[in-house]
Amino acid sequence: MPIFWSKIQNPIAQKEPVSIFMTKGAALLFLLNALWISSGYSQEQDSVKTDSAQQVSYDFLLVSGQYQTRTTFMGRDFGQRTPFFSTDVMYWHHSGLYLTASLSKFFIEDLSWQKGFGLGFAGQFSKKADFDFSVSEFWGASYLNASGTDNIGIVQGTVGLDWGLLYSTTQFQFLINDPADFFIVSNHSRYFELDKRLWEKAILSFEPRLSFFFGTSNYYQIGGYDLSRQELLETQKFKAQSVEMAVPFNLTLGSFEFQLEPKWVIPVNVPDYDTSTGNIQAALKVTYALPIEKSK
User: Which of 170, 205, 172 is CA-nearest to residue 187?
Assistant: First the structure.
């Protein structure tokens, strides 16, 4: 369902030495998690007509903070059990152009904050079909700087269709590393909203979602894994990578939205050297949308 403003969707304890394997897994999670933080913003452009011939439109400044109990990429946690916190700012122009900035922190030793910036454009083909395209760059990670593997580029394009029973999106993602990776993500969801408002002001909604992830696995090479020739060839093959089932619950109160999302993650085609397992995780997100009126 191509709705943007009612559901913004658009990542220490005692010191312990970090093992080599933990370094590999943490490095991959740190670098690749940005791909899902900025995976696109399907949206519906809104405008309000006044009594006169003058038309009023709105830009939006969106500020959000999110805590997630576990970090995964393409369904893989690389043997890590690492929660993270991220904060994002997006300026959305009524034309569909938007700018994003993000700051993410993993709750693990020796990792600095991850920074990111992005530029995108979103719009509609029709009342039931929309699209989103964006380019983003992320960098950070203190102990990765020595190898130069501390930044990553992402190009993504998404098309969405509300075909009545479900809202489905197909996302094409290009991960700019050496060698590069290509992914396709297929999401299918159904939006439900309570007829009666809570406290006469708040809107409660939920949207069960089923997602399928496909792609190559060259990202293992930037994590420092020692791969054989056959294993290198396997990373270049386009395969199913994971299945995810989630039920995000949204409470919208004025300009604020509060979201709780439990999710079941099932990785598939996991190589022997990766200890990723299926898991249940949860995310809590708060978003504030500030409308900026534009008259024309």
Answer: 170
